[in-house]
Structure formats: structure tokens, C-alpha cells
Write a structure and sequence with these properties.
It is a single chain. This protein is mainly beta. Helix content is 6%, strand content 43%. It has one helix at 57-66, and strands spanning 5-11, 16-19, 25-38, 44-56, 72-85, 91-104, 121-124, 130-132. The longest helix has 10 residues, at 57-66. The protein starts with a strand and ends in a 36-residue tail after the last strand.
Amino acid sequence: MWQKITIVGNLGSDPDMRYTPSGVPVTSFSVAVNRKVKLQDGSLQDKTTWFRVTAWRQLAETCSQYLSKGRMVLIEGEVEASAYMAQDGTPRASLELTARDVRFLGNRTDAPVAGAGTGASAASAGSGGGAYNAAPQRAAPRPASTAPGAPGSFGPPPPEIHDEEIPF
């Protein structure tokens, strides 16, 4: 059997790196994934799902070095859900994500960015952890004029699409 989950969210805490007794690095942190839910009355409500993320080996060291609270990340890995009883007697659930790939989104100044940007990437290697693939990079500055077809823009302007060309 095989499973894979991909989440995009913001770190809710600074990464906490520690070592196993055998010297294997492991880093833990929380990630909040936000979405809007439409209620019965038609209004929108923000809903946040929290994941507890664990990274191992080189991936753990990379996450500890470059991530901090508020930073936007894309994480791929395996999820495990567990239920437990809180101290006050209420039933609770926890989502634990073992990271296999972590992509740093936004900028390195730790300010959350609304859209995905470029950043460092760490990818899995083998069954137990990750190997760091790329050094952190900054996005190349875009020219002041980036309108499609404008001098200095990236690529040709998109083709015009007319209503009669839409197949539905």
C-alpha cells in the first residue's frame, strides 16, 4: 500500500531539532493549512487544519536551518491520524505528517507571502528521510514592465479565446 499527502501552509512554530540516541537528526514543527468554508447561510468562514510535521536526517537539518514561524511551505509525505482523550475529557484528534519533501515558499525574510514563490527544496532519498537537493535561491527580480508581450516580459502574450471556441 502507498499513500501521499501534499499540504501548503504556514509554520505555526519554529522548528525544534533534536537527535535520536543513535545520532539521527529529527526536526518537528506545526503547519496550519487555512481554507474558507461556505456556511448554510451563505457566509464564508475560515477553517484551519493543523498538522504536526516530522522531518528526518538531512531534511531535518535543512528544515531546522531555513524555516521559522510564519514561513509558507509545501510539504509532501505520509499522514497518520490518531484519536485521544484530552485532559478535560473531550475527544481530540491529531494529524501527524512525516515529511518526505519540503519546498520553501515565499521569501527568506520569514514574512508569509500570499502566492507561491521560489525557494529551496529538499527531496526524499530512500525510506527514512530526505536529502537536500538545492541551495536556497532567491527569485530573479522581474522587470518593471511585465505585461504580456511588453518588452522584458516572460514569453509571448496569451492567445485570444473567443466564446465560440470554448467546448462547453
